[in-house]
Write a structure and sequence with these properties.
There is one protein chain. The protein is α+β, with helices and mostly antiparallel strands. The protein has a three-stranded antiparallel beta sheet, with no helix packed on it. A hairpin with a 2-residue loop joins strand 1 and strand 2. About 10% of the residues are buried.
Length: about 130
């Protein structure tokens, strides 16, 4: 669990999510992980997720810059899930709060586990920027 970081750049390499984030002093912190959960604040606007490329963002069906989600919190981009406040417009105000996490988890986890069991790959990686490495 890492808090107080702002993701700036992300890409997938060798099946791992690689993120460059900055802390409150603007020091760059590299993070290599399988999954990322990022809080965006209260006004939901996918354009403000600067670590998500424009190409990736354009593939997500949106209404008023908020994601349209399936019953399992999956975006229109297969394997990309959004929970918490960013799922408000698809699931209602309960998901904005910790109390809604139980509902979200019960919908999301079995779906992801089933997808992995069937061998479905996570979100396809866009072409990596050679400047990032």
């Amino acid at each position: 669990l890492l808090t107080g970081l702002t993701p700036r750049i992300s890409h997938v390499r060798h099946g791992k999510l690689r993120i460059e984030a900055t802390d409150r002093f603007n020091a760059v912190k590299p993070v290599i992980t399988d999954h990322l959960i990022s809080a965006t604040g209260y006004k939901i606007d996918l354009r403000k997720l600067g670590f998500v490329s424009d190409t990736l963002r354009a593939q997500i069906t949106q209404v008023n810059h908020t994601p349209v989600l399936s019953a399992h919190f999956e975006t229109s981009l297969s394997g990309l899930y959004i929970v918490g406040p960013a799922s408000l417009h698809s699931f209602g105000p309960l998901v904005r709060f910790v109390h809604g996490a139980r509902y979200s988890a019960r919908r999301l986890v079995p779906h992801i586990a089933g997808s992995l069991a069937r061998g479905r790959a996570p979100v396809a990686a866009p072409q990596a920027d050679p400047a990032i490495g």
